[in-house]
Amino acid sequence: MNGTFFRRRLAALLLLAAAITPAPAGVIDSILENFHSSEFSFGRTDGYAPFPPLAWVSAQDRGESSLTLNGQPVRFDESSVSQFLLGPLWIGKKDMILAGEYAGWQQVGFNAPVAAQRDIYTFMPVLAWLRQTGPRQQLGAFVSPEYSHGADYAGHEFAEWSGYAGVIGVNWTSDNFAWAYGGVAAWSADRGLLFPYLGCYWQPSPHWSVAAIAPWPSVTYAPSRDYMFQAGMSPADATLASAADGSLNVSYTSWNLLFSAHRRLTRNYWISASVGWAGLGNFAVSTDGHTETDYHLQRDLVWSLQVSFRPPTKGPVGAPPTVR
């Protein structure tokens, strides 16, 4: 991995983490007060593990990848920095409006067929609505356009618009189990997809939980309210390349298998370190409207470092609160 980029990435991670860390406690307390005065009711409140993050800053490295396109080898290194934020704009008795964004910077260092270093930038605003439809049911809808800009190893620049939208319902059959169901649409300049959505969440004990919910299925073990360990999968970032004439577009449709360790820093802020395997799945190649699949993509280990903000759960009865 390029040492200069590593230092730049680490500096960016520290600066972004510092930017989100001093969030005024009064703002967070006000949001929590509005939430508790509403009729929203979620399960999984008696576990040691916190809720999924509403904000994060992450640095990731995927090492070297290699494959053969049109009879010639392609080798490249990948590193990235990403940031995510989601929060309520308004909380009523039974309705909630949320807004947020995702931003990513990915650097791809091509080693073959030519030596080149390219940057890929991604920005994705998010707008969502959530309603408490029953004592144990929620219904939500979201829309999230995505913009990507970068260049391939031959220097051809690209700019692409795509996006996602969906309607998701959640039904808590008990405090420990929930179903998630609905439909999600994905669109881009050359295709549109609509597919059903189904998942579940199960918390057999305050220490253990299983989330079979796309796109982040995971198994979590939290020995206390300050530590958490996870094994799970997450979507891989997209990388685009092209032939000399610029007609070849390449994108990942693969997953990362990660093992993570999480430590509470203070109150709702956590630091996480992950390591695992990248590129589980396939590699889709599209040229002139025809798509082929290459299953011989070779990828390296992936690691990441993340600082996040996670809403707390109440914890099991009798568990001491964590305030620092």
- How does the major sheet shape up? 14 strands, antiparallel, barrel
| Helix-strand pattern | HHEEEEEEEEEEEEEEE
Q: What would the principal axes of the Cα set say about the shape?
A: globular
Across the major sheet, the strand order is 1-2-3-4-5-6-7-8-9-10-11-12-13-15
**Which topology does CATH recognise?**
Porin
Q: N- to C-terminal separation?
A: 37 Å
User: Taking Cα atoms only, what radius of gyration do you get, to the nearest Å?
Assistant: 21 Å
Continuous helix count: 2
Oligomer: single chain
Number of domains: 1
Mind telling me the CATH class? Mainly Beta
Question: What is the β-strand count?
Answer: 15
* Low-pLDDT segments: 1-7, 9-22, 240-250, 286-291
Q: Residue share in helices?
A: under 10%
For the record, the CATH architecture stands as Beta Barrel
The helix-and-strand class reads: mainly beta
Features:
globular, Porin, 15 strands, disordered N terminus, 324 residues, 14-stranded antiparallel barrel, mainly beta
Furnish the topology, listing elements before pairings.
Elements (H helix, E strand, L loop, with lengths): L2 H18 L4 H12 L18 E15 L2 E20 L3 E18 L3 E19 L2 E15 L5 E16 L4 E12 L3 E11 L5 E5 L5 E7 L2 E9 L12 E19 L2 E19 L2 E5 L6 E9 L15
Antiparallel strand pairs: 1-2, 1-15, 2-3, 3-4, 4-5, 5-6, 6-7, 7-8, 8-9, 9-10, 10-11, 11-12, 12-13, 13-14, 13-15
